[in-house]
Specification:
The complex is a heterodimer of chains A (about 180) and B (about 200). Chain A is mainly α and about 180 residues long. Chain A has 2 domains: about 130 residues, no CATH class; about 40 residues, no CATH class. Chain A contains 7 helices and no strands. In chain A, helix 1 packs antiparallel against helix 2, helix 1 packs across helix 4 and helix 3 packs across helix 4. Chain B has 2 domains: about 100 residues, no CATH class; about 60 residues. In chain B, helix 1 crosses helix 2, helix 1 crosses helix 4 and helix 6 runs antiparallel to helix 7. The chains are: A mainly alpha (about 180), B mainly alpha (about 200). The interface between A and B is large, with 114 and 109 residues.
Chain lengths: ~180, ~200
């Protein structure tokens, strides 16, 4: 029970291809940031393929948030745990290639059409979905700990401190690590 | 890009001269960003380097947020592109990703080595709970913006709830939800915005 089963699972080339294609498809659906596609990644990797457990999936996201840099790097940690360095390549390139290509094209077009009806309708229409997806992501990340008292208190504390103070999130992650190491969740 | 008549923005005082300069700037700000890069990006690019005015930064950010993909990566891409074209875009994105990627993979490899330590699984579980809290608090902060949404607050609340339930509880595929609910919501927003404009540009957009 102590071992997380952490570390690359042995994926063959066909499975790596599947992983790459899935992340490629998710890239353009990631309206509101890559983290909004986490529920779908979890459904595919944990539920459908069984390449990672719930605990490994959540720990991958948590580890990326504890390290400096953009949060999108959680896809690299997931890739590493699923298929080693090839897995990293599959998930990271899959996630970034379509969206960066689109962003580069849009940068040239969108700066001039910021006020166009379609651009405003798109951002207004997608805003509530982004928030719904973030809430779903929160619920899925909580699954390994379950809805026990310690976890609920820790989530509430996190949300409260993020709203009431300008605390750097890394201290909250450290608090979570301490509470968890002491057996609190 | 330059022939837009309004608004009259003061030109940014400085600009990067080479892709290398962009790479270093984005590398530096990414390595400072624990739990999110956006606040650091604003401080570095607008206040310290003064490559962008606050208004220019906000404009680029809102465009980066509308587009699919990681917001800060999109932002780096657009800023790099604005100054030095595609070479600038590549330098900014590489600067933002390479060093943090190596660090986080090193961390993952260390965890793989030490995973039999009894407290480590607990620590990672605790960090996961805090991650969930961070994501939820981002959602709550963004929710404030829905008060000015063209669709109106009640409909927005219904969309937030149904999207969260469909993906988080029913576990429907994301493509189905984003394309289905999303296209309805965008169409409804377009209709509401159009109606507002037809009514002689009412007070709320």
């Amino acid at each position: 029970m102590n071992s997380l089963g952490w570390g690359p699972a042995a994926l063959d080339a066909a499975q790596l291809g599947q992983l790459f294609l899935h992340f490629l498809m998710l890239s353009l659906l990631a309206v509101g940031g890559a983290i909004t596609t986490a529920p779908e990644m979890q459904r595919f990797i944990v539920g459908q393929q069984g390449w990672l457990s719930d605990a490994q999936f959540t720990a991958s996201v948590a580890l990326a948030q504890a390290a400096p840099g953009p949060n999108v790097l959680f896809v690299a940690v997931i890739g590493y745990n699923v298929g080693g360095l090839w897995g990293v390549l599959a998930t990271l390139v899959g996630t970034l290639l379509p969206s960066t290509t689109l962003a580069l094209l849009a940068a040239r077009w969108g700066e001039q059409h910021r006020d166009a009806l379609f651009v405003r309708a798109f951002s207004a229409g997608m805003a509530p979905l982004t928030i719904g997806l973030l809430l779903a992501t929160g619920a899925i990340l909580l699954q390994p700990a379950g809805w026990q008292l310690g976890a609920v208190l820790l989530v509430t504390t996190t949300v409260a401190l993020m709203h009431l103070t300008r605390i750097n999130p890394v201290w909250l992650i450290a608090l979570g690590a301490a509470v968890g190491a002491a057996g609190g969740v | 890009m330059t022939d837009t008549p309004a608004p009259q923005l003061p030109p940014p005082p400085r600009r990067p001269a080479t892709p290398g300069e962009l790479f270093r700037a984005f590398n530096r700000l990414a390595l400072q960003g624990f739990g999110g890069v956006l606040p650091v990006a604003q401080r570095e690019l607008v206040e310290r380097l003064q490559w962008l005015s606050p208004a220019q930064f906000l404009e680029l950010l809102s465009l980066a947020q509308v587009l699919p993909g990681p917001n800060v990566v999109n932002l780096a891409l657009m800023i790099g592109n604005r100054f030095l074209g595609w070479r600038g875009a590549a330098a900014a994105v590489a600067g933002m990703l390479i060093a943090p990627l190596c660090l986080v993979l090193l961390l993952a490899a260390l965890v793989a080595q030490a995973q039999d330590l009894p407290w480590l699984a607990g620590a990672l579980r605790g960090m996961g709970v805090v991650s969930a809290g961070l994501v939820v608090s981002t959602a709550l902060k963004l929710a404030g913006g829905l008060q000015r949404n063209a669709m109106g607050l009640p409909l927005c609340a219904v969309l937030v709830g149904s999207c969260a339930l469909a993906v988080g509880w029913l576990r429907l595929p994301l493509a189905l939800v984003v394309l289905g609910l999303g296209s309805l919501a965008v169409a409804w927003s377009a209709w509401s915005l159009q109606k507002c404009e037809d009514q002689g540009r009412g007070p709320s957009p």
